[in-house]
Description:
The complex is a heterodimer of chains A (420) and B (164). Helices cover 30% and strands 18% of the residues of chain A. Chain A has helices at 5-13, 39-48, 73-89, 103-109, 141-150, 175-186, 208-216, 232-241, 299-302, 305-315, 333-341, 344-351, 401-410; strands at residues 24-28, 31-35, 60-63, 93-95, 118-121, 135-138, 152-156, 160-166, 195-199, 225-228, 259-264, 271-273, 281-283, 294-297, 325-328, 354-355, 376-379, 395-398. In chain A, strands 4-3-2-5-6 form a five-stranded parallel sheet, with helices on one face. Chain A has a five-stranded parallel sheet with strand order 16-15-14-17-18, covered by helices on one side. A four-stranded parallel sheet of chain A has the order 10-9-8-11, covered by helices on one side. Chain A is globular, with a radius of gyration of 20 Å. The N and C termini of chain A lie far apart (52 Å). Chain B has a seven-stranded mixed sheet. The longest helix of chain B is centred in the middle third of the chain and has 10 residues, at 89-98. With 164 residues, chain B is of the alpha/beta class. Chain B is built from eight helices and seven strands, in the order βαααβαβαβαβββαα. Classes of the chains: A alpha/beta (420), B alpha/beta (164).
Amino acid sequence: xxxxxxxxxxxxxxxxxxxxxxxxxxxxxxxxxxxxxxxxxxxxxxxxxxxxxxxxxxxxxxxxxxxxxxxxxxxxxxxxxxxxxxxxxxxxxxxxxxxxxxxxxxxxxxxxxxxxxxxxxxxxxxxxxxxxxxxxxxxxxxxxxxxxxxxxxxxxxxxxxxxxxxxxxxxxxxxxxxxxxxxxxxxxxxxxxxxxxxxxxxxxxxxxxxxxxxxxxxxxxxxxxxxxxxxxxxxxxxxxxxxxxxxxxxxxxxxxxxxxxxxxxxxxxxxxxxxxxxxxxxxxxxxxxxxxxxxxxxxxxxxxxxxxxxxxxxxxxxxxxxxxxxxxxxxxxxxxxxxxxxxxxxxxxxxxxxxxxxxxxxxxxxxxxxxxxxxxxxxxxxxxxxxxxxxxxxxxxxxxxxxxxxxxxxxxxxxxxxxx
Amino acid sequence: xxxxxxxxxxxxxxxxxxxxxxxxxxxxxxxxxxxxxxxxxxxxxxxxxxxxxxxxxxxxxxxxxxxxxxxxxxxxxxxxxxxxxxxxxxxxxxxxxxxxxxxxxxxxxxxxxxxxxxxxxxxxxxxxxxxxxxxxxxxxxxxxxxxxxxxxxxxxxxxxxxxx
Lengths: 420, 164
């Protein structure tokens, strides 16, 4: 029986010639990731196991991004624990303030993941690297600890849903609109335990930033992983960022899919997820006036250079609406620098937005933009659960950077065409 | 593996942000996490939960973040078992890895009401509702999962040699 792209990568990493959905396998890992929230729990578990050294100091990475730069004393203690552990273990890829960025923007940029890899991360959005044609999935801290100890993780081989992309995105429509549209269609558990595989001629109009954004939110449909077929755009990205050779896997022609959806990219409109689930999607052209108090442009979903470029283009020469706070967070130091050199940061500041150092901060209600009771935010982040960005009675509307930038100007949820 | 307790019931898509809000993730202390468990969904939970109580919920329990703090907070609150129609996949792994018993059963989730007393025998796959007298059949845990949960989680099981 034919295998999906994900199944082929898993089989290879388990040393098997083939696998099928439902099979339990032990997989050799190319990279084990943790952050400042999940790593302390994993470090305790690792030490509790009685292990002295990690399986490979080149293949374990920790990124201080969630509550860093340290938001309070407890966060500082957690970062210190990670710093000490990585120092003692001589872990090469430890990213602290100054080098760090939001983990899922940082790792592809640093070339730590390439096509064909098998990666686990103690962060649910680890599925982002599927954009590169890698198998990559979020796990908990105990799995991270075992991964650090033995370089392996067990998996149940997932079945898959195939998304055949056709057509081409219209101006000011991006990967975020596509993935919100898909989650609205299949629901927050529509791909539970499964792979989401993205293929088709439509890939040609999706940049790496679009693909990383879409794979990032596979977890919001419950998926084990999201993965994109590798094409010239992927190969060029990997070549630019990594010295490692990509390994390209393609699904067999007779691979079995539980469902196949055809998505015509030309038909995708500006899409927003209303509180309190990513599946509560509406297109901007069908909604009533929704006043907002905050806009966040950033996160592992949409803090990349392309996202900042389009936001700056839309906001150029305008002012953030009165009573709206607009917070822009470049996802990595490199993106920050490039956005500065290109003049985007100047545009944001002249508009009345603030620009923050890279951090996950407000996305998970940590700091750097917490909402008060009854407030509404438009955010380019990935979750709009109850209380996610602050007060239990605040609201988050998930949107593309295009819609977020336009909304910052008008003070209500708006399409970019309204302001450009 | 048997447990008995009073039911505390919730709906669909209970996410990890309401199980333990991220503002408390600056610690991994089990008791401190338990003191904020469920607070954005149910402010009464921490004051009414008793050791041994059983949590029952709908579809996609534990969706969202990979934070292991979520099953840790539930377990440290005294909950002995979570019954749901389905679990989000990372939560499912994490719960087993830290030794929190969980079981999937749409039938039991529909039939069981808040406050019912449930007697669970997971090795044989039977949930008995003492309040209504009903029995619900569930998939028994495979042996290695039973071993992990009985030993208090994957780390303890590796450490004491019960999983090799």
